[in-house]
Write a structure and sequence with these properties.
Shape: rod-shaped
Number of helices: 8
Order of helices and strands: HHHHHHHH
């Protein structure tokens, strides 16, 4: 094609026909412009394909992280519900029984022991960290999905900073200690370690009158229930985000 235009140009110039040369020049310029436009179109097409693949990779990463968060939240909620049920069992036993012994005492100890553990939700953030580090906020085409993703991770950060850490520190330093220390009777240490270590016998009536123990028991249940309310909302957000992410992947 280039050789053809070169020959045509030489011929026109040799014939001294300026008007025909002008037409030729315009045609050659138009050809160059068309070539540039085609190259730009192909480049934009390739760039669009590349960005679409990057978006797909991020969407799959978010979906996998969110599914993992959902599994974790359901497990934590289940553990918390078990602890609250154990709190109810302890209160029922304190209300209706005058003394405990044998397997019943062992079960009572394990109910209390379950309250010594705290829940702590840490979301999976590998994809959101890559997403933010690469400044690829514009690659998710769904504005609704993008806004809800950022809102979810911001909420998780606030919960961790303002709720989770304070609850954990308070429970660990006060509630857990009061609950466990007050049930370590001679019978319990004998069951656990094979010796009573000279500790006093288990006194159910004294435990009922122990204000620090009762306060720790009731506060633990309230704190656990409050945590679950937060976790249920996060789980709702996760399920909604998984749905939106899968819809975006199907488009």
């Amino acid at each position: 094609m280039i050789k053809f235009f070169r020959k045509l140009r030489r011929k026109v110039l040799a014939e001294g026909k300026f008007s025909r040369y002008l037409v030729y020049a315009i045609g050659e310029i138009a050809l160059v412009v068309v070539g540039i436009l085609i190259a730009l179109w192909i480049n934009n097409l390739n760039e669009g394909i590349r960005e679409a693949q990057i978006e797909t990779n991020f969407l799959e990463g978010f979906r996998n992280d969110l599914i993992a968060d959902g599994i974790t939240l359901r497990e934590i909620i289940g553990h918390n519900e078990e602890r609250m049920a154990n709190s109810d069992s302890i209160i029922a036993l304190l209300t209706h029984r005058e003394q405990l012994g044998g397997m019943e005492l062992t079960r009572f100890y394990h109910w209390n022991l379950s309250l010594a553990f705290e829940s702590y939700f840490i979301p999976e953030k590998s994809t959101i960290r890559q997403f933010e580090a690469n400044s690829n906020g514009n690659l998710i085409t769904s504005r609704e999905l993008k806004n809800k993703l950022f809102r979810y991770y911001s909420t998780c950060d606030r919960v961790e900073a303002n709720v989770e850490k304070s609850i954990q520190l308070y429970q660990h330093n006060f509630l857990t200690r009061e609950i466990i220390q007050n049930i370590l009777s001679g019978e319990i240490t004998s069951i656990l370690m094979g010796a009573d270590l000279g500790r006093p016998a288990f006194d159910l009536d004294a435990l009922k009158q122990n204000s620090a123990y009762i306060f720790a028991l009731s506060t633990k249940k309230i704190a656990t229930n409050n945590q679950n309310e937060v976790y249920y909302q996060l789980l709702h957000d996760v399920e909604e985000l998984v749905r939106l992410t899968e819809e975006a992947l199907d488009q």
